[in-house]
Amino acid sequence: MARYTGAVCKLCRREGQKLFLKGARCYSAKCALERRDYPPGEHGRTARMRQKRPSDYALQLREKQRVRRIYGILERQFRRYFYQAERQAGLTGENLLSLLERRLDNVVYRLGFADSRAQARQLVQHGHFTVNGRRVTIPSMLVDVRDVIAVRPGSQRCAYFKERAEMLDGQKTPAWLRLDPDALSAQVNALPRREDIDLPINEQLVVEYYSR
């Protein structure tokens, strides 16, 4: 399965904002963006100083890259999501974000079972979760209304999930998900809407990029 294997802190520095790709580290003083708030590379510092007003294309490209990196998706798969969103009724940008939010690895992250989407992806790949009682190892699986996502019974005995169970009591989850901390499970109440996605994203720029 294709995935980005480079240094993720460089991605935050390239985008000029925190993408929260490393969990708790992003909230600490060790965050690379806190220490070096300029693009990576030999000329990163001087490039920031010489930066001119970006073109419309540059703004569209950066927004597309930002969304793609937040969800940890490579270009080919991200393009497929866009074309799928384009075929659906409604606004393409909102459809795209809804599809990305419905990915199983994102749902696991949103529920608080992982500190980052990358960690959630790994947990899913290792078979720690079930969907409607069936073990799933595909992070890109899209959940639907009334689906039940739960930690596999055998995995609930792991020290990691025992610690997580104690942390979930105060966990804030999106309105479209209903979490049961005691059972280490959750149900999808509705499809995610734009107001449920608390990310600083301008999805219209992504639509404009692919509509050139």
Structural class: alpha+beta
Distance between the termini: 29 Å
Fraction of residues in H or I helices: 40-55%
Largest sheet: 5 strands, antiparallel
Kindly describe this structure.
The chain has two domains: 8-91 and 200-210, Orthogonal Bundle (Ribosomal Protein S4 Delta 41, Chain A, domain 1), CATH 1.10.1050.10; 103-188, Roll (Structural Genomics Hypothetical 15.5 Kd Protein In mrcA-pckA Intergenic Region, Chain A), CATH 3.10.290. The longest helix has 16 residues, at 56-71. α7 (104-110) crosses α8 (117-125). The chain is globular, with a radius of gyration of 18 Å. It contains ten helices and five strands, in the order ααααααααβββαββα. The chain has 212 residues and is an alpha+beta fold. 42% of the residues lie in helices and 8% in strands. The protein has a five-stranded antiparallel β-sheet, with helices on one face.
